[in-house]
Give the backbone structure.
Amino acid sequence: MSNQAETKKLGMMTRFLNAVERVGNKMCDPVTLFVCICVIIVVASAIFSGATVQNPATGEDITITSLATFDNFVWMLSSFTSNVANFPTLILGLVVVLGVGLFESTGLASALMRVSVMKAPKALIVPLLLLISVNSNIAGDAGFLVMPMIGALVFMSIGENPIAGMALCYAGVAGGFSANFLVGSTDALLIGYTGPAAQIIDPNYQANIMCNWYFMAASAVFLTFVGTVVHHFFVKPRVGAYHGELEQHSTTLTPEESKGLKVAGIALLVLVAVLVAACIPADSPMRDETGDLLGYSGGLISGIVPIIMLVFFVPSVAYGFATGKYKNDKDLVKGLTSAVGSMSGYVTFCIVAAQMIAYFNKSNIGSFIAISGANFLSSIGLTGIPLMVLFILLVCLVNLLVASASAKWAFLAPVFVPMFMLLGYDPSFTQVLYRIGDSITNPITPMFAYFAMLVGTAEKYDKKAGIGSLMSCLLPYSLAFFVMWALFIIVWITLGIPLRPGGAVYLA
């Protein structure tokens, strides 16, 4: 993917990224690579079988389980299909692509880009895409499914490499996953572990869902700036010009396209009106049992993926019939079939990735390493900024092995929240440090289920785009986010800025 003649000489960083790309792309096909990782997990689980560490959250022992036994061989066979069926990004990705695929194939994406993005100042496109990507976590994981595809489409519309657009948006969604202008589901999820952990030291401590709001809102803007710099100085020079079929379009619309946009806009407004009306009643099924629209058990959040699909699907269908792209239902079905068919490589990859993650979880290797690392860090006696940085680094490394934010915080919170409280820090501060570390390495961990989707989507635009190519594009974002976000929180606490309304960094 990278063209050496087009790549600027940027010193040590460029040489390092070139090495990452070369090594990564010399590896076997991603599907084969993940099969090999499955074998390694089985062998490692057999070698270290019986190693035990205590879970600080429950007091129970976590023991590495050997997968190289007859019983677990039977489990591998019997769970194969359920591992695939329960793999979140497979079904979610296919559902979303039904809408996004039509959005692209009907020409609606092209027309919409021409009347919006392509007429906007080019300098604003990258920060705008980043800001939207970073804030997309308000809808849970939906941003992972949509934004990389949108980024690729936007970059193709302005004549740039779609791989760079994918990397930009994926890094924004994954690397800035905790940052947001609004308090959302992530805040609710984490505070459920922070509160009980704090009560180990102070039984009267009351956790506040808004405990990180000020800092995370500021982080959304800060990471947008950092990501924009990384894109222009590191990623864009690396990927160079796109050598595939670049979609270049005139900025003018045909009468049919203008009519189609109007019809699509009306269809979207009707859909939004229906959704808003469904959310208004206090007893609406779109809300959870407490009446919260953003609750996990409510219809809005639990159904966010098909809702997003409909947001793309409904106006795309309206546009297709209005412009004459679709004459009847058969044309529509052909469009849907083509959209799903383009994801065949992604489906194959997901089948293998699902087994790898299931084996990793079954063996308990990830949890063992994570808890052992936490115990080591808590025992070395560091304080202040060195402790903060090492804690962020620990979470970054653990995140490479255990992708689930709640799973990590479940066993890290009981260790580090009390430890930081004894050093005088409010639990909300410890949670902020965790959220920074939990986000930074999201773009580069293959354990993150959505990485499979990124690989599959990248191959749509560049058949030669391997894991090394993607890693060399995503790694600069992770490195920059680690350095700059850590500096940001250090400056924040040095200035004594509260993390939330009425909340201080330090305990009273």
